[in-house]
Structures are given as structure tokens and as C-alpha cells.
Amino acid sequence: MSAIPPAATPARTAPLHTYLWLLAVIAGMLVLYVGLTWLCWLPAWLPRPRVNVGTITNRTFTGSVVLASIGVALYTLYLLGALVLWKTAPPRTEYSRLIWAGASAAGFILLWCYPITSTDIFDYFFRSRMVLTYDVNPYLALPNQYKSDPFIRYIGWPNAPSAYGPLWEHLSAALVWLGKDSLLTAILLYKLLALLTHLLSGLLITRLTNDPRLQTVSLYLWLLSPLTLWELAAIGHNDGLMVLTLLLAIGAVRRQHHWLAVLALTAGALIKFLPAIFLPLVVLHWMRRQSTWSRRILVAALSVALFSVPTVGLYAQFWDLPANFDRLDIADKLDAVWGGRTTTLHNLSVREGFLNASPLAVLSYLLQTTTSLAAINSALQSLAFPSANNYDVRSAVSMFGNLLLLLGLGWQCWQIWFRNRALPPAFLGLLLWYVLASSQWFQPWYIVWILAIFAIIPKRASFWWLTGWAMMAQSSYLLQYVILPVLEVGGQTLTAQALYLLLIYTLPVVIWLLTRYGPLRAKPVAHEPSQPSIRPMPQ
User: Fold this and answer.
1) Residue from 452, 426, 475 nearest 221 by CA
2) 422-424-430-433 Cα dihedral, nearest 10 degrees
3) Main-chain phi, psi angles of 382, to 5 degrees
4) Which SS3 state, helix, strand or coil, does residue 113 take?
5) What is the reported pTM?
6) Which of 227, 247, 243 minimizes the C-alpha distance to 235?
7) Which residue in 191, 284, 315, 498 could disulfide with 236, CB within 3.0 to 4.6 Å?
8) Over the stretch 218-259, which tens digit does the pLDDT of each residue have?
9) How far is it, in rounded angstroms, from Cα 423 to Cα 279?
């Protein structure tokens, strides 16, 4: 007589009111996105170049309050939805369809919203138009050389070369070619690509979240974040592609395919340079798992090859070389190739001097004041050093930022090598360090990078200050486009940069202090993932 099988464990279900709460939250967010898109209707505003928050609000108190109220309401609903999901930890299968439907609907609505907080999408379009129409190199030619072009009025960076890698230049040119000289079609194509990266990243985040009880929360935190939906679907930033490469790298390492992770980060760096700083983390993680040093050296050499071959191949057609390059001997060709770096990669050196809304930006402007510069020069003269000017100060602060980045990278490398730190917390730690400490240039969409990695390893206490940071970062658009112009304060001044810093960071710092040391300090909950165990370094 066969044994009686054990009774099946009933499937875990969440209360009906949880589903209704989430449905109400998503419905409310969609209503707000419809209202926001109606205010910024793309086909109506597109004939007018450089439309921004100040244009939409007419820089009036009433208009600013309406826009701010929509933003606060969106974040309030987002927080309520997250709180409900975190409290109940519902099964992914019951709620994922609702979250996917809400994110897809919100993304489609925001496709038709004029990008009022950034001109980047127009810069993408114009530089690719330069390549296709004028057959020029986007790393050498500047948009202001084509002042007669009818679309020059839309761009925000007419005096700077392309800020992106050659893989993005090819992809962007393909989108403009498909748009067939239609600005509206091209803008929608860029936004569709950004929305696709947003949705694909959500799929990867779900698969990379280890704890099944947190998969619904992770999916919600990413897909329905007001920050990610606005900056990707509404504004069309290409940062979604960069995020996708970071997630692909983490997924590849999970499957022990480190070589694919190196290729993914290389692709990301050829779109936007930041993913390159994560390559040492992946390579060290790979080397650590080898049994001998000879194998580790082989891994390092293979990683260099995997990065170098596609980088050289994609940059080759853009590299600045003399017209008689083919007739030069080998030594002169090598000199020409080496010399071409100063012009082809000029975009990197140009952006080292950009300062905006970061602690280092405030420090740089503070040290450039007359009083500070006088004190610096007095100290230099006492040491028999030549006097410094504003350019020297900016360069010194930039070098300090680079040093801080190296320190942060070194710390994460140490954690991986000696303490076997997993890649998601290492990536997250390095991203936070880069944005908060070592970068001179901050924009609200930089938090999108952080949120993507955070969604894999979500912690409730960290979520509150991270969301507060995102909301205040986006509120800085009102400061940039409304308050500073009304006060007649230039954006590139110490006063403006100090106001940016106070507005963006005060609330998240207060929340962080309250959740870490104050009355809102969170107690560990059973369904939050634990830190990975520490294993000794292999000999």
C-alpha cells in the first residue's frame, strides 16, 4: 500500500485590500501623469525650442505650485504603494501584472510629454544629424559651426563635442536615420528606446533579486519610480542603456560568465563612460575565483583584450588622424595615433571643468572667491610657489575628485578581494561614493543608476532617504528654471550652487539620520535579505 502523499502547502496569497490599495495607487499615478502630459503636450510645444519648466509655469507662483503639487502627489502615492508592498510582501505572481501594466501605461503617456527638464535629447538628435547631413565627426565638430541649421535652436550644448561613446553615436545616428529628418519622430524613437531599457531593466531586477518575498517590492521600486519614469520615458535620457549594462554584468557574474560581464560593462562604457569604473570590480571578482596566480594573470590579460578590441574598433572611424596617415611610416603613424587622443577625447577634458549641484562644485566655487584665492596665494607665496588663479583651483578640485574616486574604487576592490563582497553592494557603494563625494557634476537622473542597483538589494530604511533624495533632486528643476531666474541669480555662482546643495541634500540627510540613529530607526524584518557570508581569500 502506497504512502499517503503529504497535503500540498497552500499558495501564499495577500489580502484583497492590498491589491486594491496598489490598484488605487497606480490609478492615481496614471491620472497625475495624464495631467502632467497635458500641460507639456509634445506635439503642441515642439515647434517652440528650448521649452522648460519656466516656460510651462510662466515662472509664476501658481504655475510652480501646480507643478510641485503633482510631483509631491506622485511621490506620496509611490511611497504608499511601497509601504503596502513591504508590509505584506505579496507573491510576485499576484501583483507583477498590475505593476507591469501600470509602468507600461505610465511610460506610454509620458512619451508624449515635452522634455521640459533637459535638452539632452535634442543634443542627441542634432549631433547625429551633423553626422548624417554634414558628414562630420561628432568628437571634433561643434554644433555652433552649423548655425544656419533649423534645429540648432533646440540644443543646450552648442559649444561642446559629443559627451558619449562611439556605440551611442552609432545607435543615435540609426534612430535619426529612421526618423527621416522628422524631429517629432526622432524624439519619440529616443523615448521609446529609453522606455524599453526601463522595462528590460525591470525584468532583470526581478530575476536578480534573490529573496522571492522581495521580488514584487523590487519590481515596484524600479518600474513605478517617479524618477525613473520621468527621466527615461518623459525626458529620453540614454542612462537606461547604461543601467542595463550594469544589470547584465551582475547577472553574468551570477552565472559565472565573467567574460560576458566585462563585455557588458565595455558596451556601457562605449555608450556613457561611467560603467568603466566597475570593470576592476568584475575583473578582481573573476581573478579571486581562480586557483593559481598564473590563471589570475591570464584572466587579467583576457579582460584587457575584451575591453580593448571593441573599444579600438568602435573608436577607429572617429579617431583624429592626419590626411596623409596612410603614407606615414610606422613610427609616425604611432605618433599620430597617440596625438589624436587629445582631440578625439577632448570631450573628457572639457567636462572635467563642469560644476553643478555637488559638494565638490560648492567647494570649487568657494575656493575661487576673492577672499579664498587671496588666502591660497598667500600660503603659496610663503612656500615659494607661484600664485594660483581660478583655473588652477578648478584643476586642483578636479584632481581631488579623481583621487576620491580612486580611494572609493580601492575600498570596494579591497572588499571584493579580501572579504568576498558580492557585486551588487560593491556596485551600489561605488555609485554612491561617486555621486556624493567624487563627482563635480550632479544631475537628478544620476540617482536612476543608484536606484537600479538598490532595487536588487532593497532595504526599507535606505529606501526612505533615497526616495527623499530623488524627490528633492527633481524639485531642483524649479530652482533652476524658475527661482534662480526670478531672483536674477546665475546658475554658475557660489550662491546658486549652495542653494542646490541645501535643497537637494537637506531632506535625505535628515531622513538618513532619523532612520539610522533617531526614532525612525528600523528594526530588521524577516523578509529582507541578509548580507552575504564572508569567505577567506583563496591562496
Assistant:
1) 452
2) -120
3) -65, -25
4) strand
5) 0.91
6) 227
7) 191
8) 999 999 999 999 999 999 999 999 999 999 999 999 999 999
9) 11
**CB neighbours of residue 103 within 10 Å:** 25
d(CA 38, CA 154): 21
In whole angstroms, give the CA distance from residue 284 to residue 291: 13
Q: How many Å apart are CA 442 and CA 530, to the nearest integer?
A: 31
Beta bridge partners of 356: 441
Which region among 10-14, 25-29, 132-136, 434-438 has the lowest average model confidence (pLDDT)?
Answer: 10-14
* Cβ proximity of 63 and 190 under 8 Å: no
pLDDT digits 0-9 by tens, 256-291: 999 999 999 999 999 999 999 999 999 999 999 999
Say what the pLDDT of residue 343 is: 85
Give the separation between CA 265 and CA 144, rounded to whole angstroms: 33
pLDDT (tens digit per residue) in 9-56 = 444 555 667 888 899 999 999 999 999 999 999 999 999 999 999 999
Choose among 159, 231, 140, 151: nearest CA to 191.
Answer: 231
Give the Cα separation of 522 and 83 in Å (integer). 13
Residue 357 to residue 494: CA distance in whole angstroms: 10
Written as nine digits, the cell of 94 is 499576484
Q: 356: which residues sit within 8 A by CB, 6+ positions away? A: 440, 441, 442, 443, 491, 497, 500
Residue 397, C-alpha cell as written in the block: 578640485
